[in-house]
Amino acid sequence: MIGRFAPSPTGPLHFGSLLAALASYLEAKKSQGKWLVRMEDLDKPREMKGAAEAILRTLEAYGLYWDGEIVYQSKRNDLYQSALNELNVDKRTYACSCSRKEIQDSAINSQIGIEGIIYPGTCREKHITKTPHAIRVKTLDQNISFEDIIQGHVTQNLAKQIGDFVIKRADGLFAYQLSVVVDDYLQGITHIVRGADLLDSSTRQIYLQDLLGYQHIQYAHIPAAHNQQGEKLSKQTLAQAILAKDASKNLYQALCFLGQRPPADLGAEKTEQILNWAMDNWDINKVPKQKSTAI
Ligand SMILES: [Zn+2]
């Protein structure tokens, strides 16, 4: 079993990302598996200086030591490009030069999907060569299903609910959906445990895995944490950084949040004792099924 934690260095580690780190760590370590860390730092303009280093130091302070070398996505453009080339050769992609406004305007005749406007496929047959252009992958009008360990049966029709999606942006950056699929494959990831805010991305990732001939991965989506205003914890919602000095308290609270029911006196122990208890008692079936929980 190989699991992973894949933070974006857009800010320091907060409680929501600790949940994903801890759950993925315990799920891998419970089975004597490996736990890898990957820095999803493709979007350099959104990166916060020093955040990647701060995230790693916080993981260490919380006793969450990773196996092997950290993978930095920003150094792997050639790998994403060769995956993209494979899709191009198979004619699974097309260039799209639509501006944001053109897509907005075309929305009158198109439907709203789960992530906003469904791109109506305007450029599918146009064979655009002018630059800049984005690269989209053609979706199919058929259901993609998988069994999530926590959320159960998930089904999506990409053509009807998402539309042809961007895998390389007009500014030259590879999109999350492609880079994550390539890296999970190249790193040999077998189990993904992450926040349920990414549940809707899973079918796009399974679709890309199929197109590229990669094996499927087992998914488990834990509840995402949101604040009292109902906003997902993130840098944008000013989620507080978790501090090294609060490691025991936060690990204990994270175990409670993940439905593991640790004994009350465990919260006063050192991180090592808490993680030892967690490793002995971790049961992913106890994680609540809801997609989001207030903290
Ligand atoms: Zn277009």
Summarize the structure.
32% of the residues lie in helices and 19% in strands. With 295 residues, it is α/β, with parallel strands linked by helices.
Question: What are the defining features of this structure?
Answer:
9 helices, 3-stranded parallel beta sheet, 3-stranded antiparallel beta sheet, Rossmann fold, alpha/beta, 2 domains, 295 residues
Written description of the protein model:
- This protein has 295 residues and is of the alpha/beta class.
- It has 2 domains: 2-76 and 187-294, Rossmann fold, CATH 3.40.50.620; 78-176, HUPs (Rossmann fold, 3-Layer(aba) Sandwich), CATH 3.40.50.620.
- 32% of the residues lie in helices and 19% in strands.
- The protein contains 9 helices and 14 strands.
- It has helices at 15-30, 51-61, 77-89, 100-106, 158-161, 176-186, 202-212, 247-257, 271-281; strands spanning 2-5, 34-39, 71-72, 93-96, 112-113, 116-117, 134-137, 143-148, 152-157, 165-168, 191-195, 218-222, 224-226, 292-294.
- Strands 1-2-3 form a 3-stranded parallel β-sheet, with helices on one face. A 3-stranded antiparallel β-sheet has the order 4-7-10. It has a two-stranded antiparallel sheet with strand order 5-6.
- The site of zinc ion (ZN) has 5 residues, from loops.
- Give the terminus-to-terminus CA distance: 30 Å
The helical percent reads: 25-40%
Give the cofactors and ligands. zinc ion
Q: How many strands, which pairing sense, and closed or not: the largest β-sheet?
A: 3 strands, parallel
Strand content: 15-25%
